[in-house]
Amino acid sequence: MKNSHLNGDEVHENGGCDNDDVVLGVDGGTTSTVCVCVPLLPLISNQNLPNPLPILARAVAGSSNHNSVGESASKDTLEKVMSEALSKSGSNWSAVRAVCLGVSGVNHPTDQERILHWLREIFPSHVKLYVHNDALAALASGTMGKLHGCVLIAGTGSISYGFSKDGREARAAGAGPVLGDWGSGYGIAAQALTAVVRAHDGRGPQTALTDRILKALSLSSPDELIGWTYADPSWARIAALVPDVVSCAESGDQIAHKILVDAVQELALSVKAVVQRLSLCGADGNDSFPVVMVGGVLEANKGWDIGKEVINCIHKHYPGAYPIRPEVEPAVGAALLAWNFLMKESERHHNS
Amino acid sequence: MKNSHLNGDEVHENGGCDNDDVVLGVDGGTTSTVCVCVPLLPLISNQNLPNPLPILARAVAGSSNHNSVGESASKDTLEKVMSEALSKSGSNWSAVRAVCLGVSGVNHPTDQERILHWLREIFPSHVKLYVHNDALAALASGTMGKLHGCVLIAGTGSISYGFSKDGREARAAGAGPVLGDWGSGYGIAAQALTAVVRAHDGRGPQTALTDRILKALSLSSPDELIGWTYADPSWARIAALVPDVVSCAESGDQIAHKILVDAVQELALSVKAVVQRLSLCGADGNDSFPVVMVGGVLEANKGWDIGKEVINCIHKHYPGAYPIRPEVEPAVGAALLAWNFLMKESERHHNS
């Protein structure tokens, strides 16, 4: 370990660094964990980021969500994925200047503290450690590290997360199926399954979703859907039916269409709630701000484009909102955040 | 074992029986299993049922839902609870003429066959065995064994189940939370929790549900609700909040009121779907038929009476529908069904 790393508060006065210093960005999701290792370039701001970004190495491991796998396995996975990224990049633990971890399941300050505590057991005190919800890393993956604007994530689950220029943050939705995230992939598919059951038992109109979904699941009758949902409570398994719902809506099925329209309203509402609370749109409502769009539900579809409809809906209220579809993955967003935080500390040091 | 029991097809020609012959009625729920042992009285029809019914003994055990506890434990529990009821009544296995089991989770003919197979391992072939969904036992508990009309069960879950005079059956809802049973106790409480989260993150209006529910759960902020719902996925734990929702509605909270109004619509719709499919209301829509009301959600509350509102809603469409709140428990309903089935076989035997 180099001497320069032994002093916890030391930051290079010019915002620069040793040539072999690195930063780790980690995206800890419910299904997998991705770590990227990037060099700590002598940057002053994110205006002069190299394009493409220099990524020394990338490593992938299983889930590090402590709610799913427990604390001990989560810590082991994190240590393993970081070790692998360092090894692949020809670097080592002593070259690490900062780590930023974006983790799903960080909903409360106590979650953050617990994870920081584990990380501190791995890294010496001079290494800068940042732990946030994975939504922050997703925002940074769209804004290239700049903490301003709103991110909307709609995959299996959904969440809207935002940051204002003066450092305030807000979130909406992201509470899971029990607490009504109806714009999520799970929410869309659960509504479609419900529509099939209702058509079958006489509570609702017939829909093309019935044939489409039964075929997708290799079932012969809607009665069998009950057993199918009970057999495995995984939300991702249900959310996987979203393309079938989109396909039915594209073919003109009114029930499928209505489910997607409702999902668009829900997703746009969660963005609006964040924009409103943070006044991202300014006093007159016309300020410009980015809306980073992440997740399978928002990816461009052929006919029925959920992401485009959400943006249209947001535009009606906030003409200054501009959509960004990230070109880098959330783990890179996490690395950019770490970079960004280090630069800010360097500036503070420089100005003091 | 008496000789009269060794002939599988033997039924007493006068519909009568030995003095010590008994029938077992079992209500197999998700949380507990109840078995009652009743004497096989020489009845011709259910018009001359003794009041009160003679119940020789009652025994209670844990869950026998094979989805929850597995097949082996389910069978052990059933055998134990029946053995205990027989022992308490001073009877024994050889005195059993018929068993009727009403089990939650019987949604498909294969479920029925599997359970009949287990029961057949316990009882010799001359004992009549009947396995049905618990909704059928609940219907029988209201109609005193007569298979005609509709039953609406709304506890943690909800289901509507009906039988026509010509022997057709139909069900609606009862598919669980994923498939949208929004009139159930779980559904009502999940909507209330969602309303609290939406008020907190700016997607919905403020509601008295926030203070009421946080107090009930000893939480300090709606943020903590996410962790609370993830900590234990039990539906009953969520459904236990229904009295708080009713209480807020009674105090004039519009959000709570709207949740209950929607639940009433959902429950009434599930009854209507069954009535329509079975033509229980007759060609002119005015025929008389019973609607048996079962479960905590439908019990009379002080101000906001969900069960009464459901009946009002059904009455508007079907003036001949009359509500019955059962005076006996579902296990007795199951015993009455067994009785009823035996009598029918006896009549067939008599007429042939």
Automatic annotation (TrEMBL), chains A, B:
Enzyme class, top EC level, equals transferase
Instruction: Tell me which Pfam families the record gives.
Output: BcrAD_BadFG (PF01869)
Spell out the Gene3D superfamilies in the cross-references. Answer: 3.30.420.40
Name the source's superkingdom.
Eukaryota
Query: What are the residue boundaries of the ATPase BadF/BadG/BcrA/BcrD type domain, all occurrences included?
Result: 24-338
Reported EC number(s) for this entry are 2.7.1.59
**Annotated InterPro entries:** ATPase_BadF, ATPase_NBD, Euk-type_GlcNAc_Kinase
Can you provide one Gene Ontology molecular function annotated for this UniProt record? N-acetylglucosamine kinase activity
What PANTHER family does the record tag this protein with? N-ACETYL-D-GLUCOSAMINE KINASE
UniProt lists the family membership as follows: Belongs to the eukaryotic-type N-acetylglucosamine kinase family.
- Its recorded name reads N-acetyl-D-glucosamine kinase
